[in-house]
Design brief:
The protein is an alpha/beta fold. It is built from 17 helices and twelve strands. The strands form two sheets. Strands 4, 5, 6, 7, 8, 9, 10, 11 and 12 form a nine-stranded mixed beta sheet that branches. Strands 1-2-3 form a three-stranded antiparallel beta sheet. Bound molecules: magnesium ion (MG). The site of magnesium ion has 6 residues, from loops. Pfam families: MR_MLE_C, MR_MLE_N.
Length: 425
């Protein structure tokens, strides 16, 4: 009988602010960071579960402290029993009667639980010898709904609704898996669009994105309208009418400003406007979405939990759902969010980039295609070409598509040398 014998944490920070990679209207100098957790067991196979929370520098130590607060829940547990009941483990962690006060279900404690849950899924997939997307896609509809806490969701999505959605997708799973393995999953790139890049670098990176096979790019906006108009004109001139260009304001605006600014940018045929305002303000998103239609409103990377996603969907406040692998409480909560999106018929275009987010989130999108929504219509995974070299199983993006990972696990394991070199002193 094997047990979890250690929960190790690492405060890992990359000095990305030196090159302005990742710069936007609200985050001008991010140092891409990971509050990293390793679950070690005494099993003979020596396999470990790895997970992390993505942060952008200062405060990564606070996030690491939150991870350590979970040690008592996880160390000493029987490995097989734990991995057989990840729905139960999720409920135990999220509903801890004292830790819950620090949220509930939002912020650093919730994200720490997400990293631990994702590390458990990484371990489970490694032990099964399959990539996470394939493990999830092999579960029965009943096994999938057992992973989800439907508390606070049932006015929009019940267990029975979720079962019906999953059952209706079941007959096509094998065909879609074959298609995914042959063709990959569509990607878009944010690499050209960081706000700190000058016009020449923007133009050069737009050209490179098209040469690499991308048909969809994204530009950061929201600091200065004249600059945004000039940068969008440069991008549109290079891309021509057929490449999609989305814009991302990273929460910069109030409602009236969001509407005015988005309408000004709409002349460049924008694919969506992302994070126009506070991620907590459901009514503001609904007002903006109504006023700027038909430009779709996208959000999700800072949405704290499934309950806020539910309200955004109910209110019409978002029409592109951008879930994030490390913002909410891990794989389980993201499955609930995928099911909510499917119920409302809204495409999921995951947030990625940062450090390791592409590696992690591709599994959720691919599972969604095979076993939940069954669709690629209007769906793309964000791609940014930074820091993949630190991962044992980095993403493989070719011709503008994510190739389905074949290696066992959740894609979340960093090389020990990278962990050591970038551990914050
Ligand atoms: Mg964004």
């Amino acid at each position: 009988m094997a047990r979890i014998i250690a929960l190790q944490t690492h405060d890992i920070r990359f000095p990305t602010s030196k090159t302005l990679d990742g710069s936007d209207a609200m985050n001008p100098d991010p140092d891409y960071s990971a509050s990293y957790v390793r679950l070690r067991t005494d099993a003979a196979d020596g396999l470990e579960g790895h997970g992390f929370v993505f942060t952008i520098g200062r405060g990564n130590d606070v996030q690491v402290a939150a991870l350590r607060a979970l040690e008592g829940h996880l160390v000493g547990r029987d490995v097989a029993e734990t991995l057989d009941d990840l729905g139960g483990v999720w409920r135990e962690l999220v509903h801890d009667s004292q830790l819950r006060w620090l949220g509930p279900e939002k912020g650093i404690m919730h994200m720490a639980i997400g990293a631990a849950v994702n590390a458990l899924w990484d371990l489970k997939a490694k032990r099964a010898g399959v990539p996470l997307w394939r493990l999830l896609s092999s579960l029965s509809p009943e096994e999938i709904v057992d992973l989800i806490d439907f508390r606070y969701l049932t006015d929009a999505l019940t267990r029975e609704d979720a079962l019906a959605l999953l059952r209706s997708a079941e007959p096509g799973r094998a065909e879609r898996e074959t298609r995914l393995l042959a063709q990959g999953y569509p990607a878009y790139t944010t690499t050209p669009g960081w706000l700190g890049y000058d016009d020449d670098k923007l133009a050069k990176l737009c050209r490179e994105a098209i040469e690499q096979g991308f048909t969809h790019i994204k530009l950061k906006v929201g600091a200065d309208l004249d600059d945004d108009l000039r940068r969008l004109r440069i991008a549109r001139d290079i891309c021509g009418p057929d490449i999609k260009i989305a814009v991302d304001a990273n929460q910069r605006w109030d409602v009236a400003e969001a509407i005015r600014w988005t309408k000004a940018l709409a002349r460049f045929d924008i694919a969506w406007v992302e994070e126009p305002t506070s991620p907590d303000d459901v009514l503001a998103h609904a007002a903006i979405a109504k006023a700027v239609a038909p430009v779709p409103v996208a959000t999700g990377e800072h949405i704290a939990n499934r309950v806020v996603f539910k309200q955004l969907l109910q209110s019409g406040g978002l029409s592109v759902l951008q879930l994030d692998a490390t913002r909410v409480a891990g794989v389980n909560e993201n499955i609930a969010i995928l099911l909510l999106a499917a119920k409302f018929g809204v495409p999921v275009c995951p947030h990625a980039g940062g450090v390791g987010l592409c590696e992690a989130v591709q599994h959720l999108a691919m599972f969604d295609f095979v076993a939940v929504s069954g669709s690629l219509d209007g769906r793309v995974i964000e791609f940014v070409d930074h820091l993949h070299e630190h991962f044992v199983t980095p993403v493989d993006v070719r011709g503008g598509r994510y190739l389905a990972p074949a290696a066992p696990g959740a894609g979340t394991e960093m090389y020990p040398t990278s962990i050591a070199e970038y551990t914050h002193a």
